[in-house]
Amino acid sequence: MHDLVHDFAKSVLNPKSSSQDRYLALHSYEEMAENVRWNKAASIRSLFLHLGGGISADTDMLSGFKHLHVLKLSGYDVMFLPSSIGKLLRLRLLDISSSGITSLPESLCKLYNLQALTIDGYALEGGFPKRMSDLISLRHLNYWHDDAKFKMPVQMGRLTCLQTLEFFNVSQEKGCGIEELGTLKYLRGSLEIRNLGLVEGKEAAKQAKLFEKPNLSSLRLDFERKSDNCDEDVLEGLQPHPNLQKLEIRYCMGNKIPQWLINLPKLVELRIEDCQRCSELPSLGQLPSLKRLYLRSLDNIRSIGDEFYGINTNEEEEEGRSRASGSSTRTRNSFRPLKNSMYEI
Questions:
Q1: Among the four residues 47, 242, 322, 340, which has the most C-beta atoms within 10 Å?
Q2: Residue 219 near residue 240 (C-beta atoms within 8 A)
Q3: What's the longest Cα–Cα distance across the chain?
């Protein structure tokens, strides 16, 4: 993908370059037909197609661009992605985010070299194609949908090259469980995992292998509002890699937050919301990088005392006796408070 962008930049900066005919921007169905008619389409590598009048769902015209690597299809009158898209076997990048397309044809799943797919948010009314997991070269799935009932592609675990995945909805449907995340070891950036109340216990949660994903910087763990499973055990099994910088936990019905949370030395922001049964927090004051802390709707937590910094009453008594005898080896200042931090409780 980076090589394609580099070549495109060179062609723009050097109009005399021999590669200038590999990049084409068209603004009408007629222009596209003309390029196919004069056999110019075969040399095109990147096509930027803006069609104000739309495109036919069954058109075969795209197949004329048989060596195409990049296709950006835009225009809100473009309501369909032609089934002939499946003939562009060399396609690596497909961007339909600025179109009116609301469904993807099954032929898309023949694009075994596709590396990046960008879709407008909320666009896919009928979900992904059934054989989406055949796109084994896919690295970036740029798509967001905030409905926890939205169906994920079956057997996503086959997409082992995947780096960008904005959300994952856990389902009880075969091939849509949390274990599908286990093989996606290259995931990076932000990930939101929903419906965690459907996960049955700590061992099942461990199959997501979040601890083995060092490139994830932001993680949101979302449970249902009502769950019959032991959310506390599930959360225990979802321990992320120590590189995590931002963490959000919502609707967990466990009695306490796991102690692995204080083993996240790079954590900058923490949100714990609507965990109404939670009565115990870890010693969050020991997190060395924490700057922003949001605690909201934690109904069972009445107060936050010295245990926030890892201090308990017995330790204070022992420390007092030690100071009195002149043999103190640790003072209260050895616990680092949250400096320059933002609290919302």
A1: 47
A2: yes
A3: 96
pLDDT tens-digit readout, 290-342: 999 999 999 888 767 666 776 654 555 555 555 555 444 333 333 344 444 45
Helix (H) or strand (E) holding 25: strand 23-26
Tens of pLDDT, residues 139-160 = 999 999 999 999 999 999 999 9
| 3-state secondary structure string across 125-183 | CCCCCCCHHHCCCCCEEECCCCCCCCCCCCCHHHCCCCCEECEEECCCCCCCCHHHHCC
What does the alpha-carbon distance between residue 305 and residue 312 come to, in Å, rounded to a whole number? Answer: 9
Query: Which among 84, 76, 38 is positioned nearest to 59, based on CA atoms?
Result: 84
Sequence-distant (6+) residues with CB within 8 A of 13 are none
- CATH numbers and ranges of domains, the chain: 21-143 (3.80.10.10), 165-345 (3.80.10)
d(CA 204, CA 227): 16
Looking at residue 44, its amino acid is I
